[in-house]
């Protein structure tokens, strides 16, 4: 029974992806269950489309910028939460862990829309606002990854030994904590990049015409040729799959 449920669930997940792949190689797909004909020109047309190339570049810029900001913020934040939880301040750590579920991205997007679409803060549609929104939305995921690794590693003994030798808090953080979190940081940043590239709600609300991200342009493609839209979606699925594979590989290699 468990295997049957697992099989049905797997089919439920894979069937839409399989149909997208078929549609990306189909000549025509109009009012039929499956596409007709075989062609590869949708991918060539996608490569030649300037709006998709620009949107892909915008997504990479936003994702890499969000990774850089999250790395700078998540490391000290996870370290502070780890020591705060050891001193009885575990509520803050639980709040950080629940933030991705408790605060949906579309809620943040509407908040930014109200605040940054004013004469005082006319930043709506700007790339810095989009980067900041992606960084804030993905920060809890990276923080929670690092926090979990800190709990697993149990570095308090090494820190105590370093403290008895005269090492200050900054020396302990850079000499013990950072090297120990290297693998989980890399894995978490890959996850942040994947989440940022696939993020639609925030980007659709905040991006301007000049800095539209890949998912925003992808939605507009479905109003045109179905095969072209399927090819564009398959590219996004491949990016997500590669990011997931890299993240899991790094995680398996972590000590």
Report on this structure:
By secondary structure, the chain is mainly α. The chain has a domain at about 60-210: MetI-like fold (Orthogonal Bundle). About 80% of the residues lie in helices and about 0% in strands. The protein is built from 12 helices and no strands. The protein has helices at about 1-25, 40-50, 50-85, 90-100, 105-115, 125-155, 155-165, 170-180, 180-200, 200-205, 215-220, 225-255. The chain starts with a helix and ends with a helix. It is found in: Cell inner membrane; Cell membrane. It is a multi-pass membrane protein.
What's the gist of this structure?
This protein has 255 residues and is an all-alpha fold. The chain has helices at 2-24, 41-48, 50-86, 90-102, 105-115, 127-153, 156-164, 169-180, 182-198, 201-206, 214-221, 226-253.
The helix tally amounts to: 12
* CATH class identity of the domain at 59-211: Mainly Alpha
Distance between the termini: 36 Å
Main beta sheet, described? none
Q: How many β-strands, per DSSP?
A: 0
Give the CATH H-level superfamily of the domain at 59-211. MetI-like
Q: Quick check: average pLDDT?
A: 82
Tell me the structural class: mainly alpha
Helix and strand string, N-terminal first? HHHHHHHHHHHH
Q: Using the coordinates shown, work out and report the CATH topology of the domain at 59-211.
A: MetI-like fold
